[in-house]
Amino acid sequence: MKGLIRRDFSVAISNFLKTYIIIYMIFAGLYIVTRETFFLLYIIGTESAFTVNIMSIDEKDGWTRYSSTLPYSRKELVCSKYIVGLCILAGITAIIMVIMAVMWGIRNEFNFALHIGSTIGFWAIGVLITSLMIPIFYKFGLEKMQILLIIFIVVIAIVGGTFLETILIKHDGAQIMQDEMLIVISSLIAFSVSLVIYYLSYRVSAKIFEAKEL
Description:
This protein is mainly alpha-helical. It has one domain (2-210). It is 84% helix and 4% strand. The protein has eight helices and two strands, in the order αααααααββα. The chain has helices at 2-15, 17-34, 37-60, 63-67, 74-106, 112-140, 142-167, 180-210; strands spanning 168-171, 174-177. A two-stranded antiparallel sheet has the order 1-2. A hairpin with a 2-residue loop joins β1 (168-171) and β2. α1 (2-15) crosses α5 and α3 (37-60) runs antiparallel to α5 (74-106). The longest helix is centred in the middle third of the chain and has 33 residues, at 74-106. The two termini are 20 Å apart. Residues 169-177 have low confidence and may be disordered.
């Protein structure tokens, strides 16, 4: 399993890591300038694209078929993608957490509970997107998945952005919490539910991949 995970990270680093870093820097800059949550949500949305790109490379270079000859079960092959996806999501969420902390700190608007709640909200959205995209890739392939991914990212960015904005209210130029306890509880629930959804997604993907002819 460790070998599969290292291989997936190696594929990501050698093929498109630099491109995604540039994309993240651009959208992080746009967020700092405009303060629009949409740009951070777009960064989270690209996490699933990051993971799916690894899978598409596997498919194009024949790794998916070749890996079936290795001493790994199909569940392990799927599991490695989910572990890598979770690690990438954790890294991107941490970056967003730092960006928000710096910006709010500069504006003297930092609130710890709100910061943690917003971060977990981004995390949960990223998990939801990835949990849907990976099974779709295994079931329908790259082309259909790419179309659905674009549509889903846009929808999530709009709906998620609107939801996160409702958490905040403006008061004398500062953003404060409407209800700290409610946000903390909601964040913990969202985090727990996101992990359950991710696990269920893995089980679905494993079943699809096990039944698939390579």
